[in-house]
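Translate structure to sequence.
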């Protein structure tokens, strides 16, 4: 006998007759009830309703007809559990709807849950209970009132529209916010049933928009978007209230409100980036008034920023799109960190986020550059995620990080995912197109892939190489010859067609190979794919026009084969080409222009991102995800040319505090820890693409425009820091309300942090000077070159011991010279000459070039110059020593000169010079600061501050200053050079001018362009130099070989491909001078 399940055994042991329920009835664990067949049922515990049902549900109707509420409750729980599992319970509708009048609250709630699900399917039966639903609208329990309205709005019958409208109006005035929320949900249902009710529904929406509870806000805004999104006037009076309530609304409502406010702001405020325009509009910009952000615009940005910390990915994405579409360029970077955090979420979330990041990274590349490694691909990622990350990495590629990205791509090519490998090869082609300096390197790498065992890798490489060769066909005839040999092995149709197109297009570069390729293709013509056949016909036509002696018969043979091909496109093409290229009596005038038609110069293809044109869709929307306009999508409005009247958002209230402009208490404090200014809106994330030079603001005699907001914050924090007189912005003086609204702007945090740092530096000032005096860095060392040869080479010049003067000590400083920090104040004071404590012999110590950091006009009499002295920076070998000369050309004393708020890219560091307490009129101060540029030529941005002014300045190093000389033997040089081949080697030919052909001149020019050391070499016509990058210690090897006449070949070997490429350019430029 088969064993029964334990529960069935238990049922068999139950008594056959009816039994009285135990005392307590409803709370009993076991209840029996007679059924038609005499079987019994066991009441299940609450946690088991979703367990597989092994018994039939025939007794549910009898349980619903029972007089016991406990049985009805059990039946409803089982029915709702069936619905949750996807089972069809519509046949129970008549039995359930009778219990809508049950007095038990728990039963009634479950009945309403059932009716909401099936009321639309069983409309006739639901109509029978309309009177019961109307009574439910008057129930004292708010959940019952809301459920009754929900069921009523789910009955899709036009005849009850007046009843629904009356119910919605009554619910909109209900005391319970939950019922008012349900009324807002019912509005779109009624509108879809009868659009003629729009005017009355708008009145209800207007009433609910004035609701001050967070529970209603999201629902009514959703109703507004569904019914009357064009009625912007309904939002005016409620704008500030919605902004302030936003942080307390439920997550679903936050998404809806943020999307609505994004479109609202695009119609009511001016673009914050209107002054960032092409040069062609310089005249119109001059006439335009200076931009001042509307206080309500700032209110929206400030109140949405804390939501970037939300645990809900949809909320974070909504805030990110709001900032991307509405925020000033310098503040958009705050969203990058939040979006990168979402990449650790579920795959579906990653897919949507990466779609939006790919669009953002095209226009705002610098925003995501610090998080480059977050987009590296993992082996566990699905193919779609891999391809999207690859898209982002390609968009972020620039001259600084291309070497890292290309190394990453090299590992991706070995993946087993063929679609991903193909996408990687296409990404390498895009990098080569966008960054000309690595084009040859990428091309060489792709050519190496042609020997790969995988045919798909070879085929994709051929297609990409074809596009790259169109840019410089004359320089790569060898590659075309190499690809012609692949026609015997490659079987992928697209790759074969690409090779044939290349040979036909540039047949003059391979005159001996092209006819032979046509001969081979003619043999296999009938077995080729259609796309290959078309290219064979094109190749035959081009060879007939350029080399008819060798290819005339072959061309006729191919055209005859094509004439009877099964594909009509190929037959038509063959007949057309025969009439066009073979002159006959019937030939028309086109025969004369055959060469122009076939051999016309074709433009090189532009490899662009597929996300380039997606930004016209609102980010985060379904239309953006699909790249097609979805049903119900609302276009993002353009910015207005002139700002609409801001007074429409003013609300007449009794007290000023309730105007809705002030930030709720505690919001600003919660904003700072997660997104401080070090990585937030004032961070370096926009430095790469902003197009605004921080120094450019100096020419206007003022700081960055965002300081207006900082000064307004300073007015609020007057006890901590007093703002300098005479610098109030227009927004500060326009109205009291404007200053109140902008008092919590993003600049406030950075201002308070800078003040704290400055006070700390002032307190630490005497500590710096107690044991340190100053020495004068040689800003203008001798221009003659020092060349040291380790194997008997002569010393060209030894006059390299500059005199160093030590001035009188500043207050609080002793006269102990310390080479680690330079600080000299020059002027009318007497100077005591002193010998330098040690002499630095550098083989690359040539003429030092000075650069202007701050012009005296922009600095209001304060001028600053700097140079790279190529001396090691004490205390940190990874830093570049930068000597700075500060001159006071004013009639007043300058106090408290210091560096503040450095804006550095990820990995860069700065060692500030100690604060100069005072600089007398006409005096000059020389200081030294250290900067770790992280092997990058990106600028280090910081503020040069005095006691009254702040100047935005930046120091950008030439690539030759990012390295230090290395001395090695000839054998070591050759050994290391052998390790750095392939993509790590850049070779260029050049012509040396007559004045730059001597040993002395060549070495002098090379060492002036780069801080490198001479390596001994046995050959007379060869020069070798070596250096290491300051940060990573990567070797940089330079070889210059003189050939016949003035021709020379320059070779640079380095792991850092971008540094190598830029160094080749700089050395060639130096040798050509």
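Result:
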């Amino acid at each position: 006998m088969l064993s029964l399940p334990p529960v069935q055994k238990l049922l068999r042991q139950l008594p056959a007759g009816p039994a009285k329920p135990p005392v307590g009835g409803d709370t009993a664990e076991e209840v029996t009830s007679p059924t038609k067949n005499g079987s019994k049922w066991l009441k299940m515990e609450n946690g088991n309703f979703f367990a597989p049902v092994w018994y039939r549900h025939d007794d549910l109707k009898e349980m619903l007809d029972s007089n016991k509420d406990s049985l009805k409750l059990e039946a409803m729980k089982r029915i709702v559990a069936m619905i949750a599992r996807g089972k069809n319970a519509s046949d129970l509708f008549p039995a359930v709807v009778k219990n809508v009048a049950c007095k038990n609250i728990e039963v009634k709630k479950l009945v309403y849950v059932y009716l909401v699900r099936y009321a639309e399917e069983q409309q006739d039966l639901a109509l029978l209970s309309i009177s019961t639903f109307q009574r439910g609208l008057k129930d004292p329990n708010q959940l019952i009132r809301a459920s009754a309205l929900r069921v009523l709005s789910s009955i899709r019958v036009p005849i009850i529209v007046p009843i629904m409208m009356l119910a919605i109006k009554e619910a909109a005035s209900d005391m319970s916010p939950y019922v008012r929320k349900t009324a807002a949900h019912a509005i779109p249902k009624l509108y879809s049933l009868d659009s003629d009710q729009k005017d009355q529904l708008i009145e209800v929406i207007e009433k609910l928009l004035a609701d001050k509870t967070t529970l209603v806000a999201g629902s009514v805004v959703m109703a507004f978007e569904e019914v009357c999104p064009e009625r912007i006037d309904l939002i005016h009076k409620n704008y500030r209230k919605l902004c302030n309530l936003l942080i307390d609304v439920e997550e679903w409502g936050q998404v809806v409100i943020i999307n609505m406010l994004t479109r609202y702001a695009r119609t009511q405020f001016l673009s914050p980036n209107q002054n960032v325009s092409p040069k062609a509009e310089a005249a119109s910009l001059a006439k335009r008034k200076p931009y001042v952000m509307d206080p309500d615009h700032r209110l929206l940005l400030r109140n949405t920023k804390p939501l970037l910390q939300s645990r809900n990915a949809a909320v974070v994405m909504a805030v990110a799109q709001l900032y991307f579409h509405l925020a000033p360029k310098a503040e958009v970077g705050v969203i990058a960190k939040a979006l990168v955090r979402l990449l650790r979420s579920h795959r579906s979330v990653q897919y949507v986020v990466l779609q939006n990041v790919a669009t953002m990274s095209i226009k705002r590349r610098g925003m995501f550059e610090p998080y480059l490694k977050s987009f590296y691909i993992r082996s566990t990622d699905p193919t779609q995620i891999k391809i999207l990350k690859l898209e982002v990495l390609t968009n972020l590629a620039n001259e600084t990080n291309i070497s890292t990205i290309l190394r990453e791509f090299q590992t991706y090519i070995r993946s087993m995912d063929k679609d991903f490998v193909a996408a990687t090869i296409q990404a390498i082609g895009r990098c080569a197109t966008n960054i000309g300096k690595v084009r040859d390197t990428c091309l060489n790498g792709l050519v190496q892939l042609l020997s790969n065992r995988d045919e798909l890798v070879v085929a994709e490489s051929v297609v990409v190489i074809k596009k790259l060769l169109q840019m410089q066909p004359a320089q790569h005839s060898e590659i075309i010859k190499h690809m012609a040999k692949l026609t015997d092995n490659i079987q992928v149709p697209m790759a074969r067609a690409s090779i044939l197109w290349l040979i036909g297009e540039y047949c003059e570069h391979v005159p001996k190979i092209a006819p032979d390729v046509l001969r081979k293709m003619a043999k296999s013509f009938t077995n080729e794919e259609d796309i290959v056949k078309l290219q064979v016909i094109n190749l035959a036509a081009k060879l007939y026009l350029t080399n008819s002696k060798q290819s005339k018969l072959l061309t006729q043979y191919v055209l005859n084969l094509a004439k009877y091909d099964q594909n009509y496109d190929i037959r038509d093409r063959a007949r057309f080409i025969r009439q066009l290229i073979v002159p006959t009596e019937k030939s028309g005038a086109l025969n004369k222009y055959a060469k122009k038609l076939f051999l016309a110069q074709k433009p090189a293809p532009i490899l662009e991102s597929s996300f380039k044109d997606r930004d016209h869709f609102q980010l985060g929307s379904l239309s953006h995800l699909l790249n097609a306009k979805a049903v119900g999508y609302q276009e993002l409005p353009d910015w207005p040319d002139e700002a609409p009247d801001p007074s429409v958002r003013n609300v007449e209230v009794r007290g000023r505090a309730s105007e809705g402009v002030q930030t709720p208490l505690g919001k600003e404090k919660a904003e700072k820890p997660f997104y401080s200014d070090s990585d937030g809106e004032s961070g370096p994330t926009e430095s790469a693409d902003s197009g605004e030079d921080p120094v450019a603001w100096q020419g206007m005699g003022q700081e960055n425009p965002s300081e207006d907001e900082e000064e307004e914050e300073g007015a609020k924090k007057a006890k901590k820091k007093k703002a300098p007189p005479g610098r109030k912005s227009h927004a500060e003086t326009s109205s009291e309300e404007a200053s109140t609204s902008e008092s919590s702007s993003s600049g406030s945090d950075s201002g308070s942090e800078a003040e704290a740092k400055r006070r700390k530096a002032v307190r630490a000032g005497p500590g710096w000077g107690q044991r340190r005096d100053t020495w004068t860095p040689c800003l203008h060392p001798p221009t003659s070159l020092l060349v040291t040869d380790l194997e008997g080479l002569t010393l060209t010049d030894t006059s390299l011991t500059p005199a160093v003067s030590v001035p009188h000590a500043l207050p609080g400083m002793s006269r102990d010279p310390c080479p680690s920090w330079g600080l000299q104040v020059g002027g009318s004071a007497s100077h005591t000459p002193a010998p330098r404590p040690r002499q630095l012999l550098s083989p690359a110590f040539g003429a030092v070039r000075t650069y202007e950091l701050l012009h005296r006009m922009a600095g209001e009499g304060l001028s600053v110059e700097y140079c790279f002295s190529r001396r090691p920076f004490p205390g940190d070998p990874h830093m570049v020593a930068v000597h700075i000369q500060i001159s006071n050309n004013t009639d007043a004393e300058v106090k408290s000169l210091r560096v503040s708020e450095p804006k550095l890219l990820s990995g860069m560091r700065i060692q500030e010079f100690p604060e100069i307490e005072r600089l007398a009129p006409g005096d000059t101060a020389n200081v030294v600061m250290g900067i770790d540029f992280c092997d990058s030529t990106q600028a280090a941005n910081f503020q040069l501050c005095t006691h009254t002014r702040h100047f935005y300045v930046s120091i950008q190093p030439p690539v030759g200053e990012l390295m230090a000389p290395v001395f090695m033997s000839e054998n070591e040089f050759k050994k290391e050079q052998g390790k750095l081949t392939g993509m790590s080697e850049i070779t260029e030919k050049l012509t040396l001018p007559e004045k730059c052909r001597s040993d002395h001149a060549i070495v002098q020019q090379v060492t002036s362009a780069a801080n490198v050391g001479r390596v001994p070499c046995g050959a007379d016509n060869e020069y070798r130099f070596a250096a290491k990058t300051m940060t990573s210690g990567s070797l940089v090897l330079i070889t210059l070989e003189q050939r016949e006449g003035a021709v020379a070949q320059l070779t640079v070997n380095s792991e850092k491909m971008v540094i190598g490429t830029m160094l080749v350019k700089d050395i060639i430029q130096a040798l050509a001078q």
